[in-house]
Amino acid sequence: MVLIAGLGNPEDKYRNNRHNAGFMAVDAIARAHDFGPWRRKFSALASSGVLQTPDGPVKTLLLKPQTFYNESGRALQAAASFYKLPLSRIIVFHDDIDLAPGKVRVKCGGGSAGNNGIKSIAAALGPGFCRARIGVGHPGDKAQVVSHVLKDFSKADQAWLAPLLERIADAVPLLAEGRMDAFQTRVNCR
Length: 190
Description:
- The chain contains six helices and seven strands.
- The longest helix is centred in the last third of the chain and has 19 residues, at 158-176.
- By secondary structure, it is α/β, with parallel strands linked by helices.
- It is globular, with a radius of gyration of 15 Å.
- Helix 1 (21-32) crosses helix 5 and helix 2 packs parallel to helix 3 (116-125).
- It has a seven-stranded mixed β-sheet.
């Protein structure tokens, strides 16, 4: 089994914010792979399904923590503990201001790079989980970072965002197999 979480904020006013790129990614995965309905579980919305990989089907739990972005660790800890998942089977999609818009980078372990949601998860689980960082660009001024990530994606952003979410959903079986480099290559080719 693999747990794929997306980070974001639960209220409707945040739905299209850059900070909700993780929610958008898991929503795209759920739609593309016919996952079950979202249900409240683990202080999150959870959807179960199966990802078909060349090595066979992989049972998958998608998770959207409802604890707000900066407290995401509580939900992931509850789900990981319930299913007794090792950190290597946990993948977290989140926005990243240090990546160019539309770029995705995947790595397992490492620091938080100042991301409070990742800090929360690392404090709850340890640092060994995998992160799929979705580039949303930097506003150019450190003082504007919070307002930048809490603003909606612009209409111009939709030109790269919608196709990127489709590529993420199409390539996610590679993540379920642990083929991080292949996933990253497929998602970033355009």
